[in-house]
Amino acid sequence: IMFPLQKLERYLAPGTDTARFHLFQPGLAALLRAEALFTSGQGHPIDYVSSAVRMDHVPPAALPEVCFIGRSNVGKSSLIRALFSLAPEVEVRVSKTPGHTKKMNFFKVGKYFTLVDMPGYGYRAPQDFVEMVEAYLQERHNLKRTFLLVDGVVGLQKTDHIAVEMLEEFGIPYVMVLTKIDRVSRGLLLRNVLGIQEFVKENTQGCFPQLFLVSSVEFSGVHLLRCFVAHVTGNLPAAEAT
């Protein structure tokens, strides 16, 4: 549940380089700190702030920010709802229809950071997707990390490669998150993980070398992802983040 990537490690051939499986391995104190950040309470509200289709409509860039992007139907809204499960009053709409998210949706986590749910690309993407997302990535100076979601069942697709090229061109620091790991066999998941890790090693400069594996259904990897968000937004003591 906590470290699904490391759980896969036991099935690797002896001698396989696993250094990239352990780059972010927080201790209990850091995990608990992150859980507290994602738990709403008196004096620590977690709220939907606003939606925007243009940069002149986005909220002020007052807090550290992270954004989540990915193909339509990759499970982005489901993952964000899982991340906010400790704040049940936060409404994250999840639709069975791919391409449901048409705007940039901003969620404020107390006084600590903002999380942005971006429109999906590919099938049924908004007509102005490129203009909206490129403008956001290039102009949002408080953006600390972009989370690029990849379907763990099918791995990297052509549209994902285009997203990677865009992030690399803009020099945006990002990390890849494999979703839906509960829907894929262990063997296929392992092949996808190793293939994507090799792709990241050979073809990227701005991507964090460790992948994050998540299941929004079983909550595998959700706690670790919360902790990484807390880390990149500067809300974990440095000593707790490794």
UniProtKB/TrEMBL annotation:
<dbReference type="GO" id="GO:0005525">
    <property type="term" value="F:GTP binding"/>
</dbReference>
<dbReference type="GO" id="GO:0046872">
    <property type="term" value="F:metal ion binding"/>
</dbReference>
<dbReference type="Pfam" id="PF01926">
    <property type="entry name" value="MMR_HSR1"/>
</dbReference>
<keyword id="KW-0479">Metal-binding</keyword>
<dbReference type="InterPro" id="IPR019987">
    <property type="entry name" value="GTP-bd_ribosome_bio_YsxC"/>
</dbReference>
<keyword id="KW-0547">Nucleotide-binding</keyword>
<dbReference type="InterPro" id="IPR006073">
    <property type="entry name" value="GTP-bd"/>
</dbReference>
<protein>
    <recommendedName>
        <fullName>GTP-binding protein 8</fullName>
    </recommendedName>
</protein>
<comment type="similarity">
    <text>Belongs to the TRAFAC class TrmE-Era-EngA-EngB-Septin-like GTPase superfamily. EngB GTPase family.</text>
</comment>
<dbReference type="InterPro" id="IPR030393">
    <property type="entry name" value="G_ENGB_dom"/>
</dbReference>
<keyword id="KW-0460">Magnesium</keyword>
<dbReference type="InterPro" id="IPR027417">
    <property type="entry name" value="P-loop_NTPase"/>
</dbReference>
<feature type="domain" description="EngB-type G">
    <location>
        <begin position="62"/>
        <end position="235"/>
    </location>
</feature>
<dbReference type="GO" id="GO:0005739">
    <property type="term" value="C:mitochondrion"/>
</dbReference>
<keyword id="KW-0342">GTP-binding</keyword>
<dbReference type="InterPro" id="IPR052279">
    <property type="entry name" value="EngB_GTPase"/>
</dbReference>
